[in-house]
Amino acid sequence: MSSFAPSSVPTPRPGVLDIAAYVPGRHAAPGAAKIYKLSSNETPLGPSPLVKAAMARVAERLEIYPDGSAHRLREAIGEAYGLDPARIACGNGSDDLLTLLAQIYLREGDEGIVSEHGFLLYPIAIRAAGATPVVVPETNLTVDVDAMLAAVTERTRIVYLANPNNPTGTYLPFSEVRRLHAGLPSHVLLVLDGAYAEYVRREDYEAGIALVEGAENVVMTRTFSKIYGLAGLRIGWAYGPEAVIDAIERTRGPFNVNALAIEAGAAAMGDKAHVERAQAHNEKWLGWLTQEIEALGLRVTPSVANFLLIHFPTEGEQTAKAADDFLFNRGFILRGVAAYGLPNALRLTVGSEEANRGVIAALIEFMRGRNV
Ligand SMILES: *Cc1c(COP(=O)(O)O)cnc(C)c1O
């Protein structure tokens, strides 16, 4: 018989209590007449109109368990991208899959590589698996492939790369992603997170399908939360080598994608025209916002996604914090990114025309008020 100290309590595995819980973008701005939520990279166009009808049909039979293998959804994704549905796994948001990959491939004492201003879910997932995040410096707010490769040790098991990255909005050309992959030992899993892939308008960009196809150690994750406008439903997917998909299938929740999500996702995937409208809207307003903000004397990191990073002076009264409060009180909710190591910047999501014009008008007022 073992004896227990009277004070013993359930104890999380090492690393869990080192996690700083993920803080989502704010949503309420009490007092403002109208609120523009520009803090979480959601689309101003909302989901495809086909989604509502698909969900209404499922809503009639919610007593039935969902199809645990999300066949219809995987078929729809496979058809849209020309992929084998057997190599697609779906999740309750891509967060679900990104976290599961850490659980599957990391042991205590292992290391996972992330970049300096990379998406904050990755270190959380790595720590939750009992492993150690290794944070690699960036160059010009862009992932530095040489530095990533230099950080590889015999303990490295996983490398997370958001491309384009959130919150910087910068990206790596596919040649650089290939170079990163080529430099990794074959037992290290490269996770390519393409949450914003649909927004990118660059000849030298690819989300990574071709790389997954030719390698055993690359997996790509994608989401319905951004351009498809279904963040509230939680749908993500991964395309990977058979062995990686098999491991996900064994470890995921048996009904990790709910019935509404399966039908809504399949309907959304089929509406290419809606995605094209969202791309066109973004291209127009991303450019416009960048110009307008730069005209105010503020620096903007060139973005290929549906958000941009605005840099404020480090001294004086026009700080990021002051701007955040000023805009918040007028109903424009941006995202402070101090937790990402960017205390002097705010992230702004491309919104509706009304939101975009409104936030620029408010920024002009802020900059003027502080200049006189
Ligand atoms: C928004 C985002 C996701 C998507 O997360 P979901 O769980 O699918 O909503 C994934 N990666 C990055 C970098 C993101 O910004």
UniProtKB/TrEMBL annotation:
SUPFAM superfamilies: PLP-dependent transferases
Quaternary context: Homodimer.
Residues annotated with N6-(pyridoxal phosphate)lysine modification: 226
Name of the protein this chain belongs to: Histidinol-phosphate aminotransferase
HAMAP family found in the cross-reference section: HisC_aminotrans_2 (MF_01023)
EC number: 2.6.1.9
Biological or metabolic pathway of the protein: Amino-acid biosynthesis; L-histidine biosynthesis; L-histidine from 5-phospho-alpha-D-ribose 1-diphosphate: step 7/9
Family in the record: Belongs to the class-II pyridoxal-phosphate-dependent aminotransferase family. Histidinol-phosphate aminotransferase subfamily.
Pfam family for this entry, one: Aminotran_1_2
Keyword terms of this UniProt record: Amino-acid biosynthesis, Aminotransferase, Histidine biosynthesis, Pyridoxal phosphate, Transferase
Catalytic activity: L-histidinol phosphate + 2-oxoglutarate = 3-(imidazol-4-yl)-2-oxopropyl phosphate + L-glutamate
